Amino acid sequence: MAAPTISVIQPATASAGSVVTILGSGFIGATAVKFGNTDAVFTVTSNSQIRATVPAGSGSVLVTVVTPEGTSNGRAFCYTGTPGAAVQSITPASGPAAGGTSVTLVGIRFTGATAVKFGNTDAVSFTVVQDRLIQAVAPPGTGTVLVTVVTPSGTGCGIAYTYVAAPTIISVDPPSGPEAGGQEVTITGTGFTSPATVTFDGVPATNVTVVNSTTITATTPPGTAGPADVTVTTSNGSVTAPGAYTYVVVPPPVATAYVTNYTDATVSVIDTSTDTVTGTPVNGENFTGPSAVAITPDGTKAYVTNFNINTVSVIDTATNTVIGPQITVGTGPGGVAVTPDGTKAYVANNAGGENTVSVIDTATDTVTATINGENFTGPFAVAITPDGTRAYVTNRSAASVSVIDTATDTVIGTPVLVGPAPSGVAITPDGTTAYVTNRDNSTVSVIDTATNTVTTTITDASLNGPYGVAITPDGTKAYVTNRDNNTVSVIDTATNTVTTTITDASLSDPAGVAITPDGTKAYVTDFGSDTVSVIDTATDAVTGTITVGNNPFGVAIANI
To answer: Coil, strand, or helix at residue 330?
Structure first.
């Protein structure tokens, strides 16, 4: 329970022996009613009302109510017959303990005033504007005091003014965060009022919210590594907690590539900052014919299709171990893609006349839908639009692409006719265009995703058995692996022409291709030489070769 509060004394001026009514809250259990330092006889009539007999006294005093929960605020009371000026209102009625608040006093008989008192302390300054108006500056003080005006006739009736303590800071939680800022913190303390400002080493925080008198939330600004002073400023003053928050250097996430090694049934993990394989390959007990791989947007899981045993294995990227049982899907699972929100994985099942797409719920790692074979013929590769609304599936045996509505997990419209043996598909970051590699006639089809029609067919002498395709994060280039002539073609997506053909001795039956999130490198799996070739996208030249497992096929990259 809280201490009592007095809101009104009726009447506020009376003689000793009179009965006054005190209105407020928290009065049950009151042990005393004081007029200044003098106890009054009183009766608690309800939790919000007390009737008290005015004790002997003179002048102006503060009335308070005492209960086991504490002492109330003070309200001014004036004995009848008090001479001189009478203060009837003060604006504002409170201010910081440091003083300096400009206040306006309204009352009567102010002409000739010789002093304005806040308790026993003189105002810093005052000006009698007119007989009923004084402007004054509050001195420092504490608690609730009587403000009175002294004239040659004496000290008249006063009014209550409350000093509010400056805020304090007890803790900042969390106590540390990134140099880049952007972290929400909770500041615990006392005396917080709105509006308030918060700074970290003098730099203003954003989204400052005064939750209550003891809690403020704010978002940290950018800072420099090391301790930072946290300052809270309100109308009642400022407080600084030296070094209460520490800015720390957060290492950037590492772009990690996962490569499926089809023949030795392993998955290699590559640190793209060093272009080295980290640890030992994720082992073959969990894979049989690992084909494609897709990583969840948050980088926590990698989904690997096992073409030879009709399952999908799930890798925990934190430990690089397979977790949970294998997920049974359709026959010959090949391509796999995860939705941008990370909730679903789509798997194309293309062997044994299966012609289905399995939908995996990534929260439970179970198949929740199977999209039937009437809509597919040799479904092979899968790509999902950046907004997550549609999945594009290449039909390798029907020279077409089917489009899935991911909300209903049904095929929409008629298949989009492309070239023979469409093998790879990738969608531009803006979601407007899909690129499909047609292996058997060495072309690339360009699909307008708004109309689901082919707008361009790219032909070029460099295209020879085009297979995998990946698009840079800025959408300006598409990289296409050519399995039949051991090259990589680079397509300018603005003109839909091949601008560069990458040739290098390391490229051997290049199959999969993936690009780092920062767009600086492309990684190509060399199915024929058990390596991965690294391409610098600025120069479009092979800058390194990484030895992995036997017959590397699929590759996916994420910041982990």
So the answer is: coil
User: What are the strands, taking DSSP E only, across 54-158?
Assistant: 60-67, 70-71, 75-79, 86-91, 94-96, 102-108, 115-118, 121-122, 125-130, 133-137, 144-151, 154-155
Distance between terminal CA atoms of the chain?
51
Q: In what helix (H) or strand (E) does residue 534 lie, and over which residues does it extend? A: strand 531-536
How far are the Cα atoms of 256, 336, 365, 519 from residue 342, in angstroms, in the given order?
18, 13, 12, 21
pLDDT tens-digit series, residues 340-386:
999 999 999 998 788 999 999 999 999 999 999 788 999 999 999 99
Distance, in Å, from the CA atom of 178 to the CA atom of 468, rounded to the nearest integer, reads: 38
The dihedrals phi and psi of 344, each to the nearest 5 degrees, come to -135, 150
Alpha helices in 333-439 (DSSP H): none
Give the residue carrying structure tokens 């010789």.
114
Nearest to 338 by CA among 347, 329, 327: 347
Summarize pLDDT for 152-185 with one digit per residue, the tens: 988 999 999 999 888 999 999 999 999 999 999 9
Q: Which residues contact 348 (CB under 8 A, 6 or more apart)?
A: 333, 334, 335, 336, 357, 376, 379, 380, 381, 382, 393, 394
φ, ψ of residue 440 to 5 degrees: the values are: -80, -15
Give the Å distances, CA to CA, from 152 to 85, 125, 232, 237. Answer: 10, 18, 44, 36
